[in-house]
Specification:
The chain is built from no helices and 8 strands. The strands form 2 sheets. Strands 1-2-3-4 form a 4-stranded antiparallel beta sheet, with no helix packed on it. Strands 5-6-7-8 form a 4-stranded antiparallel beta sheet, with no helix packed on it. By secondary structure, it is mainly beta. It has a single domain, classed as Thrombin, subunit H, CATH 2.40.10.480. Helix content is 0%, strand content 52%.
Length: 89
């Protein structure tokens, strides 16, 4: 799970279904789902300015535009990854 830099949204990875649940932290309601179609999302992190989120899977990282909540790119890793994080600068 990752929180947007503003704290307004939480991206929750659902590895059983291959979805990202986007939760409005004020209302505590799921506002949108992003279907990744393949893979099992394991974790998420936001860029420091909140424009992008990066969702980590075992062999794929999905890059998501955080404004439109759409997948804009994928990065394939030859081996599994186990965590993702960004520094504030």
């Amino acid at each position: 799970m990752a929180f947007s830099p503003s704290g307004a949204y939480a991206y929750v990875t659902d590895s059983s279904d291959g979805y990202i649940d986007i939760i409005n932290t004020s209302t505590k309601n799921v506002t949108r789902y992003i279907n990744l179609y393949v893979g099992e999302p394991l974790g998420a992190a936001f860029s420091s300015n909140g424009s992008y989120s990066y969702v980590l899977g075992y062999a794929t990282t999905w890059i998501i535009n955080s404004v439109s909540n759409t997948v804009i790119s994928t990065v394939h890793q030859p081996r599994g990854a186990y965590g993702i994080a960004f520094s504030k600068n």
